[in-house]
Amino acid sequence: MxxxxxxxxxxxxxxxxxxxxxxxxxxxxxxxxxxxxxTDKMQMVPISRAATGAEWEAAMEKAVAxxxxxxxxxxxxxxxxxxxxxxxxxxxIPVVAAPKSVLVITANIWDDARQAKLxxxxxxxxxxxxxxxxxxxxxxxTRTREEQMAALAYNAAGAVETWLLEHPEWFADPGGGGAL
Length: 180
Fold this sequence. Notes:
32% of the residues lie in helices and 23% in strands. By secondary structure, it is α/β, with parallel strands linked by helices. Strand 2 (43-44), helix 2 and strand 3 form a beta-alpha-beta unit. Helix 2 packs across helix 5 (145-165). The longest helix has 21 residues, at 145-165. The radius of gyration is 17 Å and the shape is elongated.
């Protein structure tokens, strides 16, 4: 029973978010301002392939720019992400020892016009690579570490977008009459 619960949790966590070719989610008059990723407190799971903070910052900032740079509103919002921890699946024995890649981030969002952080506490999000035939045997065998990082960063940016959509009040016009 515990194995089934764990599998369901992993499947839920791996559910893919909207693709970059899908219509934009409704974030009001959103336009991306600053896109900052920090890695000063990042930890690597010991079984992981190694990656530098600069590599993670570049991968995450690219994923955020790709996802949120598509918005062309006039209200500037800044996204800050701290990479808390990661594991990049190393090559292993298929099925028996096929660890999964995972990324843990903490996200924050600021509204430039209000000059205020919109969330009181950082939102911690955990993402995995998408579950597909390739992942069932472990991406350490089928993907480079750069490909794993790009996939995790893409999923993390999607998770941030999903989190933002849970808070439409952040993107409502505070004056009630037109854009700021």
